[in-house]
């Protein structure tokens, strides 16, 4: 028969549902199509290359500094606590032989996710480590570069492929989680980011070579 707890089940199910990563359709440009010329600067390809190279070159340092600022047990149990296996992170299955369009879309999904994740990490670190000036500065710099890159990818997607909408899957928000969970989530995301940005740089840079 019905247990007295039955009524609780839908509520629990709802909570679990809400904790799943958020899927979203990111509108690259407002409106229902790509605007005409003027969206792209002439050196957009070169800018994009440079931004990916900068992110790749600074990712490891950002992660190391982040780790240092979280203190114990993160420094001594990094492999266990920062293992990214359990978190959502956009798949990045493209390679050098993939079509350029596929590469650009995968890049967009990656950096839109990264931008949202950096927003959470920065908010958490401002709260948990307000004195970590260098870390906060690096987080802001990385966010700024990421947003510039997104705007350049937006322009390339529109101009070359008439793509103005991409389905982006975002991670879990860290809002309301414990301090430990916030630190851990940031650590997992940034560790995975170091791996994926290296791969992204290897795949993207040849696609954007000056021809
Ligand atoms: C590269 O990616 C394409 C899809 O973008 C896939 O069909 C192909 O098998 C991949 N090649 C290698 C060597 O992984
Ligand atoms: C980046 O993330 C912030 C939230 O932290 C959001 O408001 C903004 O629209 C995002 N920018 C892009 C280009 O996706
Ligand atoms: C935190 O992450 C969630 C999910 O990725 C995102 O929707 C939200 O905008 C982020 N918050 C901030 C402050 O960036
Ligand atoms: C942030 O960017 C500015 C301007 O490019 C640079 O001067 C500064 O050294 C950077 N800071 C960090 C911590 O990367
Ligand atoms: C591309 O990146 C550059 C450098 O960050 C930035 O100034 C520019 O606004 C970005 N967007 C476009 C559409 O050029
Ligand atoms: C990405 O950064 C790593 C570490 O700095 C470097 O060894 C590698 O050559 C870079 N990859 C590309 C394609 O620039």
TrEMBL record:
| Any GO BP annotation | immune response
Signal sequence span is 1-24
What is the protein named?
Leukemia inhibitory factor
Q: Name one GO molecular function term.
A: growth factor activity
* GO cellular component terms listed in the entry, alphabetical order: extracellular space
| Keywords tagged on the record | Cytokine, Secreted, Signal
Query: What domain of life?
Result: Eukaryota
Q: Any idea what job this protein has? A: LIF has the capacity to induce terminal differentiation in leukemic cells. Its activities include the induction of hematopoietic differentiation in normal and myeloid leukemia cells, the induction of neuronal cell differentiation, and the stimulation of acute-phase protein synthesis in hepatocytes.
**UniProt xrefs under Pfam families:** LIF_OSM (PF01291)
List, alphabetically, the InterPro entries matched.
4_helix_cytokine-like_core (IPR009079), Leukemia_IF (IPR003624), Leukemia_IF/oncostatin (IPR001581)
Cellular compartments annotated: Secreted
